[in-house]
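Predict both folds.
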Amino acid sequence: MDAFLDAVGAFHLLRPLWLLALLPVAGLWWVIRWRALTGAEAPTGIAPHLAEALTVGETGRAQIQAIDGIAAVLALLTLAVAGPTWSRVPNPLLAQTAPMVVALEVTRSMEAPDLAPNRLDRAKFKILDLVERRAGARTALIAYSGSAHRVTPLTEDPNLLRSMLDALTPEVMPQEGDNATAALELARAELAKSETPGAILFVLDELSGTDAAAFEAPAEEEAPVLFLVAAPEGSPRGALDRLDAEIIQLTADETDLAAIDRAAASAYRAALLGDERLDWDDRGWVFGWLAMPLLLLWFRRGWTMRWAVLLACAISAQAPTAARADMVDWFFTPDQQGMMAFRDKEFAAAAELFQDPMWRGQALFRSGQYPEAADLFSRIDTPEAAFAEGMARTRNREYRPAIAAYETALELQPDFPDAEWNLAVTRVILDYVESAREQSDTGEEAGIGADDVVFDNEAERGAETQTDFSEEEAAGEGFQTTEQWMRSVDTDMGDFLRTRFLQENATGGAE
């Protein structure tokens, strides 16, 4: 219903002057119809009263005539040419759904076991389910207790969110408390970095009265705030009941996720409608399809127009097989077919269909074909293409070429916040990878290793080494098994977050 109301409110015509063509169509229909009604004459040579008795039905008043169908088809085609639209064409470099910032309460009360295994773990599971459901959308994670901290920026990578979520416990938080106001401010600041406004989701068990004022009467331009209550029904919810906001109860099924999806989708539609940089999506083809059934009326007995349709079908049937296009190609361009596949998340098929290079590159990227996407983007001389090339190369672990691509994007468009952010992050990743390799090769860190992993090491830091241990031999030689290594990574991540949160708290907040 929300989508329908949004569409009705945004409906307009891209080429409204074409509506003037309805005047001659209406005139033609009236003239021919009038002649049909008045042109029939009573039989001659018969007395009028006998002729009237012998006539079946009313002379000249056929309910449906050929001109009615023709006029209806011409009217629908005129509306199609006028360009009806009620939505915008999404930018391929932006997410297909609204970005979302998830603020998770990480407090002692969230460790209550009334939701097995406990409230916090159930909340984590639900967040992961939400991320998987919103595949392709960007999600950021904030953790808060007495202070609020950004755990991950807006990202499409569920693995990054999963590793960070697993490490979040009350022990890593620098202060005890329940400062939802600080989390809200941090969430809004994170969304401000996105070109497309999104939504904020608070996952908590209750809201304190001191924080209620921050959530009351938000400004019209501010992102909508949703609440997912990670507590059993009937549990105290604090000031939540006083808010005029969408409050969703955590459920065992996906009912809660569906409600969150609807709210996020509504925010995305509103964002697209208000973005003047995006083109309107011409939906004239809808009226073209509506005109198709009316053509079937031309087969009615006595209507000579049917012969034209039969002749066209006969000509097409006699044409060589190679010259006959697929029926879909009669009505949709390759880019339109690619867009349909893209919206259905059939990205590999969309990549084969798209002719537009940017959309084709985006489809290749979404389908995991990162080298092909990077190669395609590298041939397009725009800042958006250079940025997309950097993302593809980063996903393919080509960190130095990715840095070069982001630098190119900033040369072409100095004011490009996303490129600046990705450039900084990629530089940090490259430095970390090369430092880890260097330390591993010099023996500064024992027990760090990986099988069949190739790092970007163009700086030639460290030496090339190769190990040929089985897991059992490695354990016997003092190395870590895969399971031990994964546990150490989780532990290290918790230590990393604790240290980072303490530093942010000491310097006055998250960056």
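Second protein follows, with its predicted structure tokens after the sequence.
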Amino acid sequence: MNLDKLIEEYLRYLLIDKAYSKNTIDSYEKDLEKFLYFNKNKDIKNITVENLKDYIKYLNDIKLTDKSIARNISCIRGFYKFLLIEKYIDNNISEAIFSPKTKKSLPKVLTEDEVFKLLDIKLTDNFSYRNKAMIELLYATGIRVSELVNLKLQDVDFNDDIIRVFGKGSKERIIPIGDYSKEFLNKYICEYRPSMLKGKTVEYLFLNNHGNKMTRQGFFKLIKKLAMECGIKKEISPHILRHSFASHLLKYGADLRTIQELLGHSSISTTQIYTHVTNEELKNNYENYHPHGN
């Protein structure tokens, strides 16, 4: 069977059987398209270990980072595992290739002062109230930007002060919302969102200037613009606000298991990276403020 047909089948498997999100499947598809291009017109059974090693060399030659190469290799391994399960191949040759060791960098975070600056939005119209509600909610819950823009009206429960989000693999999480985010979310929904609909019926919570669902790209541009306006010089993205949420929770005594549940991490090892962030901050504070710190 040709490689392109097998890739199509694998992507359907990820969608239907594994319930992967569209964003994850899109990422897999892009990685596998590179693999298909390199091995065009080849039958899967004719691809050898040497071909795989040549492909990894090609990824190096086109200047992909070690992290991107590791992700591509992980994608290929998943693909070959699927082919073995479905009996398209008899031998999983991807087991003979190894990912480059990648240095784990600490997640970038905002200080509390920087977060407060970002939240200090001058409230003048529909859009400023929407922006305030979105950023308050993002910092209050630590949800991913994809989860934020995909929230629907019925996902917000003001009686129990919670939101329901559907994360990776369509897993549902129940997350509490604080008083600040509840206040501005309620104000946005009741007083400002109706006029943004432009006569449409839209189930999504956050709307753009056309009365449609806010996109990830739209929110990314928005948060960068707001950061620039309030004088934050650091690189900023919605994910950095998620990192800040987790880091600040840990700093004030929340346990890792709670943070893991709130973030929707499948493994506690992913959440443990925030202990390194907190330890780094402690070290910096010691060096800056202790008389013999330096």
